[in-house]
Amino acid sequence: MSLLSTPHLIGIKGLSRADIDLIFSTADNFKEVLNRPIKKVPSLRDLTIANLFFENSTRTRLSFELAEKRLSADIINFSASSSSVSKGETLIDTVNNILAMKTDMVVMRHPNAGAALFLSKHVKSKIINAGDGAHEHPTQALLDAFSIRGKVGDLGGKKVDIMGDILHSRVALSNIFCLQKLGAEVMVCGPATLIPKYISSLGVKVETDLRKALEWCDVANMLRIQLERQDIRYFPTIREYVMQYGLTKEILNSLKKEIIVMHPGPINRGVEITSEVADSSQSIILEQVENGVAIRMAVIYLLAS
Question: In this structure, how many other beta carbons lie within 10 angstroms of the beta carbon of residue 105?
């Protein structure tokens, strides 16, 4: 069996095209397993994985936990609010204490960018980054690209627009790296205040007009407005944002083509997209959720091998 070129999954930037192809082909096999009556394999029966979430998460945490259980791994879950971190313990001490209980791998979400890379250099364990601040969210990018591939095949030459709150999004950066490695063209669209000034240096197109962006793309990945990360107002009101950047069925129907609509969740229905769009035949949001388990099974399995 082929192996990944990296001992950890810190970000998409550290993966090669061959790594991504290997993760996808492995996920294809696990997706087939997930559609069997018995959705479990004994692959990691002797492995113990610690899920360390220093930041709130529902979908990502549950997806990782289910992926680990489908691989028959033992798991322990940790949340910062109920741990010794709240008493002042350092990140390294916390993780080393958990590793001393003979755990083999760490899945970590942390509010600070670079936390996963820092940890990988200071503890003896394989680290999977489940999101670090506004930096990277590699498994989300992998499952997004995997979901697009499931709809359109090879991503080479496909046009993908990432829309919304680019500034505070860890999904946006990982998606840009992943899509470009797979040969797709990438555009970001949103209010100028929510688009980082450096973003064009990554080789992406920049657009502030929603309609122009939709007319350009084959796939629209709508990002959530992360009000909890905004320390100042980046647009006048939610109503004004909705009027300029909210995706409605009327706008989709007015395009001279049918595009794929994605959203990494959680959705603010009526803000980034309407319920009619989220539940439409053009939406692959629930396929993204389903594919997330297969992708995370593949990543864990390959890193453990």
Answer: 22
Give 11's contacts (C-beta < 8 A, 6+ positions apart): 116, 117, 129, 135, 136, 138, 174, 177
Q: Is the pLDDT of residue 213 over 90?
A: yes
- List, as one string, the DSSP characters of 247-282: B-HHHHHHSSS--EEE--S---BTTTB-HHHHTSTT
pLDDT, tens only, 249-273 = 999 999 989 999 999 988 889 999 9
CA distance linking residue 32 with residue 40, whole number of Å: 11
pLDDT at 231 over 70: no
What is the spatial distance between Cα 119 and Cα 116, in angstroms, rounded to a whole number?
5
CA-based radius of gyration for the chain? 19
Provide the mean pLDDT of the chain: 93
The number of C-alpha atoms within 13 Å of 7 and in the hemisphere containing its C-beta is 10
Distance from C-alpha of 124 to C-alpha of 35, rounded to nearest angstrom:
35
d(CA 222, CA 246): 9
Residue carrying the six token digits 């397993």:
33
Tokens of 285: 């949001």
Partners of 76 in the β-ladder = 50
pTM for the whole structure? 0.94
CA angle 225, 226, 229 (to 5 degrees): 150
* Residue at token pair 């803000």: 271
Task: Give me the residue label for tokens 């760490």.
Answer: 106
DSSP calls for 151-168: HHS--TT-EEEEES--TT
Confidence of residue 165 (pLDDT cuts 50, 70, 90): very high
Tokens matching residue 133: 């601040």
Alpha-carbon gap, residue 179 to 243, rounded angstroms: 29
Pairing of strands 74-79, 205-207: unpaired
Tokens of 236: 């006048």
